[in-house]
Specification:
InterPro entries: Glyco_trans_2-like, Glycosyltransferase_2, Nucleotide-diphossugar_trans. The protein is an alpha/beta fold. It is built from nine helices and ten strands.
């Protein structure tokens, strides 16, 4: 199965693809992450959160054509926003630097976009997806927040709080992203729905972080996600959206 998907990943698309990788002190993980990236992507933009290890040096050694953006503020949301602004591709893909997201799945995300979607949303709960890392409390919180979003916005998402997503760069203006933290994924999902974008869920399998400790704090960041959901509902009209179509397949373990 994996050999077949690796072969498929060598097929190029007739669009430019930028991969954004926010990273802070991820030198040990980047060799694993970059090894999964397809050879047909057009650029990798590493957003460095002022790392104190060899993150940038390791990344440049692994990929000499790497573009590096030094983050001016703090937080994953800010890092992604700065990376999005620097991207030159038609399609932007966001992945994590800790090894939890598999670059070989990028083909499924890009396929969803070139076949009509505006926003391709990764889901660990869609058929073919999964996670090796979700704790019971994080899973419960994610399901609650996903359900709340679906109730308030008329969406039918299966996985709200997941950072593996892709979209056409031309939609950056309508997304109008303006947050600093982990709530960035929620903000994107909500504003994509409010804007009436065509959203398709792509099954994805999340791995455990390879080295180091996560900066995610379930209660603190869950509260920030909740506030984002509620704030956006108060300031914008809910637009009923059809259920996002599930496309593609996740890689086998």
């Amino acid at each position: 199965m994996e050999a077949h998907l690796d072969a498929m990943n060598k097929q190029p698309f007739a669009v430019g693809v930028s991969v954004i990788v926010p990273a802070m002190n991820e030198a040990e993980n980047l060799p694993h992450v970059f090894a999964t990236l397809p050879d047909w992507i057009d650029e990798v933009v590493l957003v460095d959160g002022n790392s104190t290890d060899d993150t940038v040096a390791v990344a440049r050694r692994l990929r000499p054509d790497l573009r590096v953006v030094v983050q001016t503020r703090r937080g994953k949301g800010n890092a992604l926003i700065e990376g999005f602004r620097a991207a030159r591709g038609d399609i932007i893909v966001m992945i994590d630097a800790d090894g939890s997201t598999d670059g070989r799945e990028i083909r499924s995300f890009v396929s969803a976009l070139v076949n009509g979607a505006d926003f391709a949303k990764g889901s660990r709960y869609a058929p073919g997806g999964g996670s090796d890392d979700l704790s019971p409390i994080r899973s419960l919180g994610n399901r609650f927040l996903t359900g709340l979003t679906n109730l308030l916005y008329g969406t039918r998402y299966t996985d709200l709080c997941y950072g593996y997503n892709a979209f056409w760069a031309r939609h950056l203006e309508v997304l109008d992203l303006d947050c600093d933290g982990f709530e960035i994924e929620t903000l994107m999902n909500v504003r994509a729905a409010q804007a009436g974008l065509v959203i398709r869920e792509v099954p994805s399998h999340e791995r455990c972080r390879i080295h180091g400790e996560s900066n995610l704090h379930a209660l603190r960041d869950g509260w920030r996600v909740f506030r984002t959901i509620w704030r956006e509902r108060l300031h914008g009209a809910a637009v009923p959206a059809p259920a996002p179509e599930v496309v593609g397949v996740a890689l086998a373990k």
